[in-house]
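tool_call: predict_structure(chain=1)
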Amino acid sequence: MSALENDVAPSPARIAVRTLLFFGFWLMISGGAPADLPVGVAAAAAAAAVSLRLLPAGASRLRLGAIAALALKFLRQSIVSGTDVAWRALHPRLQLRPGFIAYPLHLPLGGGRSAFCALSSLLPGTLPTGTDESDALLVHCLDTTQPVAANLAAEENLFMRVLGHD
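tool_result:
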């Protein structure tokens, strides 16, 4: 018997969507030469089968509206943070107050938390560096007087909505 015997078999639509996503990714990285298409289809089908085995469909559903809101917030925050970092780099008289802040995470351990930390690492001026003994996220920032913890809380809240953790 399968180790995942209690799992519900994935629907044909779910299989098709994952296969198309992997095939699209394959096209982006391979260049999509016509002679290589059969290999790409086979690779996409194999990747979809493995992903459905390792990451079966769960009760959690991604929410498109929340994804769009997160993408817009991330874009806005990237521009604001990038401008702030550039301003500080070009005006050396501005005081930097580098240091670490501890942010208590609300996401459970696992892929969602890892994805949130990876997303947070992309924003200029802050860098998640791990967790402390109380499992709070340690974030290095250029200016500890900025509302880094409040920004992380808002981003984590939105990220949790994307994952369906209301």
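agent: The CA atoms of residues 53 and 64 lie 24 Å apart. Proceeding to next step.
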